[in-house]
């Protein structure tokens, strides 16, 4: 079996119990039993590939392939191991498997670099257990300072308990933070999760930037009452109000520029029984766009529309910001190296595109320069069990990753020279990504 086929087979193996918490499909939330079983399996594969493996204070798995010299800084490669509910098998996991295969490829050839390679499987990118996403990624990037950690999941289990049950400790969560000098750069390969590469008959693409996201929690409070006796004109039905709000959010998303998207993906109705007029509704709002400005203007419009609806229907509304991820450019120097690697791997002029989906690279960009490689997926389907990739594309992706690492090594003596070369410092860039999503 080729290395690309093995990476795909491993994702498939991890796509069901005991690596999933749902016996009927794939659901691997942060710190669940499926997550634990998955890390044990990945750890064995990392060791077989020539790495040492450890689980950090946030439940991320990290394999390390040592440099020519001890204690060297690392080029970090990876993605996430958690999944959404009813997930596909490749979102996140394929990037981790390709990291392992890249190291295996070098280890088999006795090739070492002046820098170490660390393969990381982040534990929480999706935010499918607690109300915010990228907790484990932010722990590594050292950007959890502002994040309240008194979070609970849908079953009322606190983050502290979940960490404890996993053998970890909330008190130590922030110790997963990596000092800047430990890491040279972060490189992530990921399925595209969109249709562009397939439409253009391309196996691979290079990500220039990742779109901005906001996540809100909206709470609507009406008055619960007897469904048989409460006259219609006297009701303050929280669910009817929320339904109107969902449609307003959809309308605002539709009315914006092409890159704007707005989604309500989760809703809780209380008391949630057939014969009681709903008194309380809580729902999520996810707003994304190529620029922070478009995203923020849409969020303002949503707030105003929801306030109007609440006023007219005489229910109370609170909208709480839960997460703010700014539009993130990939490092221009590393992107150029990735373009060269893709050109070599595919023999075609590389396609550069903006990611509408969020990725660990968004958070890691706060710590180090980042680069991303996209692999074609069937019909652009993702966050769905029908997610599919082609083995030949994965082989090409692996060739691009190993070629990128060689280019990274030769770009300067210490392996850090490509970073930011094209356009100055990453943090000073304010790209306009409108229309590219
Ligand atoms: C993660 O997949 C996200 O884009 O929310
Ligand atoms: Mn992902
Ligand atoms: Mn995802």
Detailed description of the structure:
The protein has 437 residues and is α+β, with helices and mostly antiparallel strands. The protein has eleven helices and 16 strands. The chain is 32% helix and 21% strand. The protein starts with a helix and ends in a 26-residue tail after the last helix. Strands 1, 2, 3, 4, 5, 6, 14, 15 and 16 form a nine-stranded mixed beta sheet that branches. Strands 7, 9, 10, 12 and 13 form a five-stranded antiparallel beta sheet that branches. A hairpin with a 5-residue loop joins strand 1 and strand 2. It has two domains: 293 residues, 3-Layer(aba) Sandwich (Aminopeptidase); 114 residues, Alpha-Beta Plaits, CATH 3.30.70.360. The site of glyoxylic acid has 3 residues, from loops.
Secondary structure: elements and pairs:
Layout: H1 3-13, H2 33-48, E1 52-55, E2 61-65, E3 74-80, H3 93-108, E4 116-122, H4 135-141, H5 159-165, E5 183-191, H6 196-199, E6 204-210, E7 212-221, E8 225-226, H7 238-255, E9 261-263, E10 267-270, E11 276-277, E12 280-289, H8 292-312, E13 316-325, E14 328-329, H9 332-346, E15 352-355, H10 360-364, E16 370-375, H11 391-411
Parallel strand pairs: 3-4, 3-5, 5-16, 6-15
Antiparallel strand pairs: 1-2, 2-4, 6-14, 6-16, 7-12, 7-13, 8-11, 9-12, 10-12
The protein binds glyoxylic acid (GLV) and manganese (II) ion (2 copies).
């Amino acid at each position: 079996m080729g290395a690309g086929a093995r990476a795909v087979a491993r994702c498939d193996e991890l796509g069901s119990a005991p690596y999933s918490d749902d016996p009927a499909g794939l659901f691997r939330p942060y710190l669940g039993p499926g997550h634990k079983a998955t890390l044990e399996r990945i750890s064995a594969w990392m060791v077989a590939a020539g790495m040492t493996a450890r689980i950090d204070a946030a439940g991320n798995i990290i394999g390390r392939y040592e440099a020519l010299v001890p204690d060297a800084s690392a080029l970090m490669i990876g993605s996430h191991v958690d999944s959404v509910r009813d997930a596909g098998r490749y979102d996140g996991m394929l990037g981790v498997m390709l990291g392992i295969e890249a190291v295996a490829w070098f280890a088999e050839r006795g090739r070492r670099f002046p820098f170490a390679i660390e393969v990381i499987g982040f534990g929480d990118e999706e935010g499918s257990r607690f109300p915010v996403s990228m907790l484990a990624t932010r722990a590594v990037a050292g950007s959890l300072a502002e994040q309240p950690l008194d979070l609970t999941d849908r079953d009322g289990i606190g983050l502290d308990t979940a960490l404890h049950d996993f053998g970890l400790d909330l008190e130590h969560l922030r110790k997963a933070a990596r000092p800047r000098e430990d890491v040279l750069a972060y490189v992530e390969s990921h399925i595209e999760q969109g249709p562009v590469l397939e439409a253009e008959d391309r196996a691979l693409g290079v990500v220039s930037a990742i779109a901005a996201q906001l996540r809100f929690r909206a709470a609507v409070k009406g008055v619960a009452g007897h469904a048989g006796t409460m006259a219609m004109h006297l009701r303050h039905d929280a669910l009817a109000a929320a339904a109107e709000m969902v449609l307003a959010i959809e309308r605002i998303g539709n009315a914006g520029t092409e890159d704007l998207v707005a989604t309500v993906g989760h809703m809780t109705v209380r008391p949630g029984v057939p014969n009681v007029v709903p008194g309380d509704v809580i729902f999520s709002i996810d707003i994304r766009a190529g620029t922070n400005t478009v995203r923020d203007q849409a969020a303002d419009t949503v707030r105003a529309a929801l306030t109007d609806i609440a006023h007219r229907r005489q229910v109370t509304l609170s909208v709480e910001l839960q997460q703010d991820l700014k539009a993130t450019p990939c490092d221009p120097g590393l992107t150029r190296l990735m373009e060269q690697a893709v050109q070599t791997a595919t023999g075609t002029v590389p396609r550069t595109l903006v990611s509408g989906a969020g990725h660990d690279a968004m958070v890691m960009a706060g710590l180090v320069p980042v680069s991303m490689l996209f692999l074609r997926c069937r019909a652009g389907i993702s966050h769905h069990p029908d997610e599919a990739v082609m083995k030949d594309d994965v082989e090409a992706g692996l060739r691009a990753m190993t070629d990128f690492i060689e280019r990274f090594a030769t770009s300067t003596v210490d392996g850090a020279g490509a970073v930011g070369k094209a356009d100055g410092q990453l943090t000073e860039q304010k790209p306009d990504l409108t229309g590219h999503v």
